[in-house]
Amino acid sequence: MSLIFRRAVEADLKAIIELLADDVLGSSREAIGGAIDARYRAAFKEIEADPKQFLCVVEDGHTREVVGTFQLTFIPGLSRGGAKRSQIEAVRVKTDRRGENIGETMFRWAIDYSREHECVLMQLTSDKRRPDAHRFYERLGFEATHEGYKLGLG
Amino acid sequence: MSLIFRRAVEADLKAIIELLADDVLGSSREAIGGAIDARYRAAFKEIEADPKQFLCVVEDGHTREVVGTFQLTFIPGLSRGGAKRSQIEAVRVKTDRRGENIGETMFRWAIDYSREHECVLMQLTSDKRRPDAHRFYERLGFEATHEGYKLGLG
């Protein structure tokens, strides 16, 4: 299978939001159907304007269908000898395309891209209600050394 | 006690690196003593040039001693309705100033600052070997809903 990795453009917004919503935990969090909410457009513009964000769209090279998405953020920091980190968030593979190793190919690509951009550490947090995702990350070499804390500011 | 919160300048680098190293886990990760390593200077310049990073230095308002540090990163994203997140990393309070509620005052300040900057979620990861830190975060209202995964790219 051939996959195409490219930076998202505004015309991808609908497909990306549908992928984010197409998920047990995501379905209650996203606003889909009808026009694209203005909050998504504003967030997209901010991501697009920031050279440290890479919002990726993954296409099937044959059908050109959008089959996955993820967002990388490069974070400069002083700790660990001035290490630059790559953080991956909002990873999704289209439901009806699971089981084809698309997720693994996406992660291998993201790891290589982060290494090429001089990141010495890659990090992510994963909801504790996603045991399948945890096995997947552990197979890729990630270690759950940290607790991931969240605080709503709403 | 009065604390001063301000953006770090290059002259603070030595004090910040000493704080990062002044820690059970940090001591083996940082290069201290002698001249400041070029990697720290390069990382500092990158943080300083990025409007989404806020590297904070906390001073005792009376003695003007640096007693704490943390780094905030604002991360735009599409998920959760285009929510902007505030991530806090590299939090340290000077060892001989612990037990004075400096850490709690720092977090209250960081939470307010993040809310003022339209973040709807604050997040952090904390090493599983820091049980005292976990109790502290939970007192502040943070919930350990996620696993924090790391992968070295060295």
Q: Which key features would you list for this structure?
A:
homodimer, 154 residues, alpha+beta, Aminopeptidase, 5 helices, GNAT family N-acetyltransferase (chains A, B), Bact_Acetyltransf (chains A, B), acyltransferase (chains A, B), GNAT_dom (chains A, B)
Architecture overview:
The structure is a homodimer of 154-residue chains. The radius of gyration of chain A is 16 Å and the shape is globular. The mean pLDDT of chain A is 94. Chain A is of the alpha+beta class and 154 residues long. In chain A, 32% of the residues lie in helices and 32% in strands. Chain A has a five-stranded mixed beta sheet, with helices on both faces. Chain A contains five helices and six strands; from the N terminus they run E-H-H-E-E-H-E-H-E-H-E. The longest helix of chain A has 15 residues, at 102-116. The interface between A and B is large, with 67 and 67 residues.
